[in-house]
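Data card: per-record layout.
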Amino acid sequence: CLVVMPVLVGTAVALAGLAVGAVVATVASPTLALSIVGEYNRYTGLLSYLSFAVVGLAVLRAFDADEAAATLRLVAGLGAALSLYGLLQAAGGDPIDWHGRADGQVFATLGNANLFAGYVAIAAPAALWVAISRTSAPRLRVGAGVGLAVILVGAIASKSFQGPIAAVPAVLFLLLVWLSTGTGREGAPRHNPARARLRHPRARPAG
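The structure for this 207-residue chain is written out next.
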C-alpha cells in the first residue's frame, strides 16, 4: 500500500491538472461553445478531455498491478508494431495504397501522421516502464528496450511534433514516480487496495 498510494495520488493529481487546464483553456477561448464540444467529426473539446480524466480515474480504482502491467505491455507492443509499419511506409515499401496516400507518409494504420504520433507518444512511456521494471521478465525487458527505440525512431519519422511534445512529460513523470517510490525496482504490490475494498467491503456493525 505504501508503494501504490503515491502512484495513485500522483496520477490523480496529473489527471486533475489535465481537467483544470482544459477548463481554463475553454473559458479563455473566443469560441466557447465550439471549445466545449470540439469541431465536427473531431470532438476534441472540453467534454472529451473531462471524459478522458474520468476514464483514467476509473482505471486507477479498478485495475490491480497485474492488469495494469498487462495493459502497458499491450500498449507498448502495439506501439512498436505500428512504428515498424510506419518505418516501412517511410521507406516506400507499404504494400497497401491507402487511396493514393502511400507516398512516404508515416501514419501506419491510424489515418494521419498526427494520430500516429499521438499513439506512439502514449506507447513510449509504456515501453520504458516495461524495460525498467523488475516485475517484467528479462527477455521482455530487452524486447521493450528495442521496441522503445523503434517507437522513438517512428515518432521522428512521422515529422509530427505533437508526439515528442506529449511523450517527454509522460516519460519524465514515469521516471519521477519510479525513482521516488521504488515502483518496478522492488516490485509493486500485487493488488489494488481500492479494488479490494470494493470486492470485500467492511461489515458495518448491526444497529
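Known properties of this structure: The two ends are 32 Å apart (CA to CA). Helices lie at 4-28, 32-37, 46-62, 65-90, 113-132, 138-157, 162-181, 193-199.

See the next section for split statistics.
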